[in-house]
Amino acid sequence: MLKSACALALFAGILAAAxxxxxxxxxxxxQGQPRAYTTDDLYEYMDGNSEGYFLYxxxxxxxxxxxxxxxxxxxxxxxxxxxxxxxxxxxxxRDLRQPMVKIGMGGQIVARRAMFTKGPYYVExxxxxxxxxxxxxxxxxxxxxxxxxxxxxxxxALGWFPEDGQVSLRLVPESPLGLxxxxxxxxxxxARGKAFVVTTASEDAARALIxxxxxxxxxxxxxxxxxxxxxxxxxxxxxxxxxxVAGATGDGAGDLLRxxxxxxx
Length: 265
Hints:
Elements: H1 2-18, E1 29-30, E2 35-38, H2 42-46, H3 51-55, E3 58-68, E4 71-80, H4 83-93, E5 106-109, E6 113-118, E7 121-128, H5 134-147, E8 166-172, E9 185-190, E10 193-199, H6 203-217, E11 225-230, E12 234-241, E13 244-250, H7 253-263
Protein backbone atom coordinates (compact mmCIF):
# COMPACT_ATOMS: atom_id res chain seq x y z
CA MET A 1 0.00 0.00 0.00
CA LEU A 2 2.82 2.39 0.90
CA LYS A 3 4.65 1.55 -2.34
CA SER A 4 1.48 2.25 -4.34
CA ALA A 5 0.99 5.57 -2.60
CA CYS A 6 4.61 6.56 -3.29
CA ALA A 7 4.28 5.58 -6.93
CA LEU A 8 1.10 7.64 -7.29
CA ALA A 9 2.74 10.61 -5.62
CA LEU A 10 5.75 10.35 -7.91
CA PHE A 11 3.52 10.11 -10.99
CA ALA A 12 1.52 13.12 -9.86
CA GLY A 13 4.72 15.12 -9.34
CA ILE A 14 5.96 14.29 -12.83
CA LEU A 15 2.58 15.17 -14.32
CA ALA A 16 2.49 18.52 -12.53
CA ALA A 17 6.04 19.34 -13.56
CA ALA A 18 5.32 18.61 -17.20
CA UNK A 19 1.97 20.43 -17.46
CA UNK A 20 1.74 24.25 -17.33
CA UNK A 21 -1.49 26.04 -16.37
CA UNK A 22 -2.61 29.64 -16.82
CA UNK A 23 -3.31 29.98 -13.09
CA UNK A 24 0.41 30.00 -12.30
CA UNK A 25 0.40 33.78 -12.73
CA UNK A 26 -2.67 35.78 -11.58
CA UNK A 27 -4.77 37.53 -14.20
CA UNK A 28 -4.31 35.07 -17.05
CA UNK A 29 -6.99 32.83 -18.54
CA UNK A 30 -6.72 29.84 -20.89
CA GLN A 31 -7.47 30.08 -24.58
CA GLY A 32 -8.60 26.74 -25.96
CA GLN A 33 -7.69 23.37 -24.50
CA PRO A 34 -4.31 22.26 -23.07
CA ARG A 35 -1.96 20.60 -25.57
CA ALA A 36 -0.18 17.26 -25.31
CA TYR A 37 2.11 15.71 -27.92
CA THR A 38 4.45 12.75 -28.25
CA THR A 39 6.86 11.62 -30.94
CA ASP A 40 3.85 10.32 -32.87
CA ASP A 41 2.15 13.66 -33.46
CA LEU A 42 4.54 16.53 -32.59
CA TYR A 43 5.00 17.26 -36.31
CA GLU A 44 1.35 18.32 -36.49
CA TYR A 45 1.96 21.07 -33.93
CA MET A 46 5.45 22.08 -35.08
CA ASP A 47 4.42 22.50 -38.73
CA GLY A 48 7.20 20.24 -39.96
CA ASN A 49 9.88 21.60 -37.57
CA SER A 50 9.83 18.64 -35.18
CA GLU A 51 13.01 16.97 -36.48
CA GLY A 52 15.26 19.17 -34.36
CA TYR A 53 13.40 18.05 -31.24
CA PHE A 54 13.67 14.40 -32.23
CA LEU A 55 17.44 14.74 -32.73
CA TYR A 56 17.79 15.62 -29.05
CA UNK A 57 15.63 12.74 -27.83
CA UNK A 58 12.24 14.44 -27.44
CA UNK A 59 9.75 12.37 -25.43
CA UNK A 60 6.64 14.49 -24.88
CA UNK A 61 5.30 18.04 -24.72
CA UNK A 62 2.59 19.67 -22.65
CA UNK A 63 1.42 23.19 -23.41
CA UNK A 64 -1.21 25.83 -22.89
CA UNK A 65 -2.13 29.19 -24.41
CA UNK A 66 -2.87 32.00 -21.93
CA UNK A 67 -4.37 35.44 -22.56
CA UNK A 68 -4.56 38.71 -20.68
CA UNK A 69 -6.16 41.59 -22.54
CA UNK A 70 -4.59 41.74 -25.99
CA UNK A 71 -1.56 39.68 -24.97
CA UNK A 72 -1.28 36.00 -25.81
CA UNK A 73 1.34 33.63 -24.42
CA UNK A 74 2.03 30.23 -25.98
CA UNK A 75 3.71 28.07 -23.30
CA UNK A 76 5.21 24.65 -23.94
CA UNK A 77 7.20 22.28 -21.72
CA UNK A 78 9.06 19.50 -23.53
CA UNK A 79 10.60 16.50 -21.80
CA UNK A 80 13.78 14.92 -23.15
CA UNK A 81 15.70 11.78 -22.27
CA UNK A 82 18.14 13.51 -19.91
CA UNK A 83 19.35 16.91 -18.76
CA UNK A 84 22.17 17.03 -21.32
CA UNK A 85 19.68 16.59 -24.16
CA UNK A 86 17.33 19.26 -22.80
CA UNK A 87 20.25 21.67 -22.42
CA UNK A 88 21.35 20.80 -25.95
CA UNK A 89 17.91 21.73 -27.25
CA UNK A 90 18.14 25.05 -25.43
CA UNK A 91 21.60 25.79 -26.88
CA UNK A 92 20.36 24.95 -30.37
CA UNK A 93 17.56 27.54 -30.07
CA ARG A 94 19.05 30.39 -28.08
CA ASP A 95 20.37 33.58 -29.67
CA LEU A 96 24.15 33.75 -29.23
CA ARG A 97 23.97 37.53 -29.56
CA GLN A 98 21.82 37.83 -26.44
CA PRO A 99 22.89 37.27 -22.81
CA MET A 100 21.90 34.27 -20.72
CA VAL A 101 19.82 34.57 -17.55
CA LYS A 102 19.99 32.38 -14.46
CA ILE A 103 16.80 30.34 -14.66
CA GLY A 104 17.06 26.59 -14.11
CA MET A 105 20.23 25.29 -15.74
CA GLY A 106 20.23 28.28 -18.07
CA GLY A 107 17.79 30.56 -19.82
CA GLN A 108 17.28 33.49 -22.14
CA ILE A 109 14.63 36.20 -22.26
CA VAL A 110 14.20 38.58 -25.20
CA ALA A 111 11.36 40.91 -26.20
CA ARG A 112 8.85 38.27 -27.31
CA ARG A 113 10.39 34.97 -26.31
CA ALA A 114 11.68 33.20 -23.22
CA MET A 115 13.24 29.79 -22.84
CA PHE A 116 15.04 27.84 -20.17
CA THR A 117 16.00 24.31 -19.29
CA LYS A 118 15.86 22.48 -15.99
CA GLY A 119 16.68 18.81 -15.61
CA PRO A 120 15.23 16.92 -18.59
CA TYR A 121 12.74 19.73 -19.36
CA TYR A 122 12.96 22.49 -21.95
CA VAL A 123 10.50 25.38 -21.50
CA GLU A 124 9.45 27.87 -24.20
CA UNK A 125 7.20 30.93 -24.03
CA UNK A 126 6.21 32.98 -27.09
CA UNK A 127 4.36 36.31 -26.75
CA UNK A 128 2.08 38.03 -29.26
CA UNK A 129 1.41 40.55 -30.78
CA UNK A 130 4.46 42.73 -31.48
CA UNK A 131 5.93 44.43 -28.44
CA UNK A 132 8.36 44.14 -25.54
CA UNK A 133 7.11 41.56 -23.04
CA UNK A 134 10.38 41.11 -21.15
CA UNK A 135 8.87 41.74 -17.70
CA UNK A 136 5.91 39.41 -18.35
CA UNK A 137 8.15 36.68 -19.72
CA UNK A 138 10.46 36.92 -16.71
CA UNK A 139 7.50 36.60 -14.33
CA UNK A 140 6.21 33.55 -16.17
CA UNK A 141 9.64 31.95 -16.41
CA UNK A 142 10.11 32.25 -12.66
CA UNK A 143 6.67 30.74 -12.03
CA UNK A 144 7.28 27.84 -14.41
CA UNK A 145 10.70 27.15 -12.94
CA UNK A 146 9.05 26.40 -9.60
CA UNK A 147 6.88 23.59 -11.01
CA UNK A 148 9.52 21.98 -13.23
CA UNK A 149 11.56 19.33 -11.44
CA UNK A 150 15.24 18.71 -12.13
CA UNK A 151 18.81 19.90 -11.81
CA UNK A 152 19.62 23.60 -11.82
CA UNK A 153 23.36 23.25 -12.40
CA UNK A 154 24.49 23.35 -16.05
CA UNK A 155 25.93 20.10 -17.47
CA UNK A 156 29.39 19.29 -16.13
CA ALA A 157 30.62 19.00 -19.73
CA LEU A 158 30.53 22.79 -20.08
CA GLY A 159 33.48 22.98 -17.71
CA TRP A 160 35.62 20.72 -19.88
CA PHE A 161 36.30 23.41 -22.47
CA PRO A 162 38.48 26.49 -21.84
CA GLU A 163 36.47 29.71 -21.92
CA ASP A 164 39.29 31.85 -23.35
CA GLY A 165 38.48 32.56 -27.00
CA GLN A 166 35.38 30.37 -26.94
CA VAL A 167 32.73 31.41 -29.49
CA SER A 168 30.08 28.76 -28.85
CA LEU A 169 29.57 25.47 -27.00
CA ARG A 170 26.77 23.00 -27.54
CA LEU A 171 25.78 19.36 -27.52
CA VAL A 172 25.74 17.98 -31.07
CA PRO A 173 23.23 15.08 -31.11
CA GLU A 174 24.93 13.28 -33.97
CA SER A 175 28.07 13.61 -36.13
CA PRO A 176 30.26 16.11 -34.22
CA LEU A 177 32.64 17.78 -36.71
CA GLY A 178 30.71 15.97 -39.43
CA LEU A 179 32.07 12.58 -38.34
CA UNK A 180 29.09 10.23 -37.98
CA UNK A 181 31.10 7.59 -36.14
CA UNK A 182 31.50 9.97 -33.19
CA UNK A 183 27.79 9.67 -32.42
CA UNK A 184 26.87 12.36 -29.86
CA UNK A 185 29.24 14.82 -28.23
CA UNK A 186 29.92 18.36 -27.04
CA UNK A 187 31.60 20.72 -29.52
CA UNK A 188 33.19 24.07 -28.66
CA UNK A 189 34.10 26.54 -31.38
CA UNK A 190 37.05 28.89 -30.97
CA ALA A 191 38.52 31.58 -33.16
CA ARG A 192 41.45 29.24 -33.83
CA GLY A 193 39.52 25.98 -34.31
CA LYS A 194 37.15 23.52 -32.64
CA ALA A 195 37.28 21.01 -29.81
CA PHE A 196 35.02 18.06 -29.05
CA VAL A 197 34.43 15.50 -26.31
CA VAL A 198 32.51 12.25 -26.73
CA THR A 199 31.55 10.20 -23.67
CA THR A 200 31.43 6.46 -24.31
CA ALA A 201 30.00 3.66 -22.18
CA SER A 202 33.37 2.28 -21.08
CA GLU A 203 37.13 2.44 -21.62
CA ASP A 204 36.87 -0.46 -24.06
CA ALA A 205 34.26 1.47 -26.04
CA ALA A 206 36.55 4.50 -26.07
CA ARG A 207 39.45 2.37 -27.37
CA ALA A 208 37.22 0.99 -30.12
CA LEU A 209 36.09 4.49 -31.09
CA ILE A 210 39.61 5.89 -31.28
CA UNK A 211 40.62 2.91 -33.43
CA UNK A 212 37.80 3.73 -35.84
CA UNK A 213 38.89 7.37 -35.89
CA UNK A 214 42.46 6.36 -36.71
CA UNK A 215 41.22 4.28 -39.63
CA UNK A 216 38.89 7.04 -40.83
CA UNK A 217 41.64 9.71 -40.69
CA UNK A 218 44.46 7.48 -41.94
CA UNK A 219 46.56 7.66 -38.76
CA UNK A 220 49.00 4.95 -37.61
CA UNK A 221 47.72 2.25 -35.27
CA UNK A 222 47.76 3.00 -31.54
CA UNK A 223 45.54 3.48 -28.52
CA UNK A 224 45.75 6.74 -26.63
CA UNK A 225 46.48 9.69 -28.94
CA UNK A 226 47.30 10.65 -32.51
CA UNK A 227 47.47 13.55 -34.96
CA UNK A 228 46.38 13.54 -38.59
CA UNK A 229 45.59 15.80 -41.54
CA UNK A 230 42.11 15.61 -43.01
CA UNK A 231 40.90 17.00 -46.32
CA UNK A 232 37.99 18.81 -44.66
CA UNK A 233 39.01 19.27 -41.03
CA UNK A 234 42.65 20.18 -41.59
CA UNK A 235 44.99 19.35 -38.72
CA UNK A 236 43.26 17.28 -36.04
CA UNK A 237 44.57 15.99 -32.72
CA UNK A 238 42.70 13.21 -30.88
CA UNK A 239 43.25 11.49 -27.55
CA UNK A 240 41.53 9.13 -25.14
CA UNK A 241 41.19 9.57 -21.39
CA UNK A 242 39.31 6.79 -19.67
CA UNK A 243 35.95 6.50 -21.39
CA UNK A 244 36.28 9.93 -23.00
CA VAL A 245 37.50 10.62 -26.53
CA ALA A 246 38.50 14.23 -27.17
CA GLY A 247 39.85 16.08 -30.15
CA ALA A 248 40.72 19.50 -31.52
CA THR A 249 41.21 21.04 -34.95
CA GLY A 250 42.82 24.14 -36.41
CA ASP A 251 45.87 26.16 -35.45
CA GLY A 252 47.16 25.09 -32.07
CA ALA A 253 45.04 21.93 -32.07
CA GLY A 254 47.50 20.11 -29.84
CA ASP A 255 47.52 22.85 -27.20
CA LEU A 256 43.74 23.11 -27.24
CA LEU A 257 43.37 19.35 -26.90
CA ARG A 258 45.75 19.24 -23.93
CA UNK A 259 43.75 22.00 -22.24
CA UNK A 260 40.55 20.03 -22.74
CA UNK A 261 41.87 16.65 -21.60
CA UNK A 262 43.33 18.24 -18.47
CA UNK A 263 39.79 19.22 -17.45
CA UNK A 264 38.20 15.81 -18.05
CA UNK A 265 37.37 13.80 -14.93
